[in-house]
């Protein structure tokens, strides 16, 4: 069966250019393609449009709807095969991703179990409770009434440094071996003052100031770069092992928190206890 007048089917004038024919073809294909148009006559109309287009563009007047239908069927079969191959490939990729996620989840759960029940878990729990204990001690020590300890001046540095609050400070050493950063205009006079005392916290002996009598007046000068001014911030770091253990989960945040706790926070705890004999002050409740 012949397609009829191809110009009439495509809705173009005889002698229309190839560009006009292609434009009309594209518009009609969008309208009558069976995938878009569910009308019963859409398929026949589409084949007629295809045949008219082939006839005008390739000068093949012998093409009819049967030839166009066969050609369209072959293209459709190839399209269906390509689509099925794509679907299979996509399904295989999704299955591979699913298996990878299962393996990652199994690894994280096994690692989490090791952290909670193995030797590493015991290590982490001990560190968590020690950090919690020291945090409590630091906060209690911070708010308890201060104490005064008599000290004697031994030496001072002649070099001046800048403090974080733009004060000029010098290093002052007492006869008991402790060193303090104090204002430079006072450090050299500390050897001459009477009744020189260190103002300390009662438990851990954290020095926060020096106090002395200057004539009729009592002077109190802060100690710079001391642990006392940073202990609240540091105590929050000591809570990290407990938080990482208590809120344990199989995600990267917990794994990283556990790793940091076992090494970085452990080093911080050891430094805190060993320096300035704090472990002695801790176990003697500040009596030594």
Give the percentage of residues in beta strands: 5-15%
The spatial strand order of the largest sheet comes to 1-6-7-8
E-strand count: 8
**Count of distinct structural domains:** 2
Quick structural gist:
The chain has 288 residues and is an alpha+beta fold. Helix content is 57%, strand content 15%.
Description:
The protein is α+β, with helices and mostly antiparallel strands and 288 residues long. The protein folds into two domains: 1-106, DnaJ domain (Helix Hairpins), CATH 1.10.287; 118-288, no CATH class. The protein is built from ten helices and eight strands. The chain has helices at 6-10, 18-32, 42-58, 65-117, 119-143, 184-187, 231-238, 240-246, 252-274, 278-283, and strands at residues 147-150, 153-156, 161-162, 168-174, 179-183, 194-200, 207-214, 217-222. The strands form two sheets. A four-stranded antiparallel sheet has the order 1-6-7-8, with no helix packed on it. Strands 2, 3, 4 and 5 form a four-stranded antiparallel sheet that branches. The longest helix is centred in the N-terminal third of the chain and has 53 residues, at 65-117.
């Amino acid at each position: 069966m012949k397609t009829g007048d191809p110009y009439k089917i495509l809705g173009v004038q005889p002698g229309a250019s190839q560009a006009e024919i292609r434009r009309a073809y594209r518009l009609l294909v969008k309208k009558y393609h069976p995938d878009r148009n569910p009308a019963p006559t859409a398929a026949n109309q589409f084949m007629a449009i295809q045949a008219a287009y082939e006839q005008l563009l390739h000068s093949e007047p012998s093409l009819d709807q049967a030839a166009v239908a066969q050609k369209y069927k072959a293209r459709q079969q190839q399209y269906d095969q390509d689509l099925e191959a794509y679907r299979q490939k996509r399904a295989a990729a999704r299955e591979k991703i699913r298996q990878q996620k299962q393996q990652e989840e199994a690894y994280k759960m096994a690692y989490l179990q090791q952290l909670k029940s193995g030797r590493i878990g015991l290590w982490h729990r001990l560190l968590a409770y020690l950090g919690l204990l020291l945090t409590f001690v630091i906060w209690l020590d911070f708010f308890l009434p201060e104490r005064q300890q008599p000290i004697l001046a031994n030496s001072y540095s002649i070099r001046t440094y800048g403090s974080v609050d733009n004060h000029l400070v010098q290093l002052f050493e007492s006869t008991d071996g402790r060193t303090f950063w104090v204002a430079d205009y006072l450090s050299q006079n500390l050897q001459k003052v009477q009744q020189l005392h260190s103002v300390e916290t009662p438990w851990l002996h954290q020095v926060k100031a020096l106090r002395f009598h200057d004539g009729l007046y009592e002077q109190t000068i802060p100690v710079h770069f001391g642990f006392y001014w940073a202990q609240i911030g540091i105590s929050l770091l000591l809570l990290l092992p407990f938080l990482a253990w208590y809120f344990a989960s199989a995600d990267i945040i917990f794994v990283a928190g556990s790793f940091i706790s076992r090494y970085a926070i452990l080093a911080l705890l050891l430094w805190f206890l060993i320096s300035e004999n704090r472990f002695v002050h801790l176990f003697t409740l500040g009596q030594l």
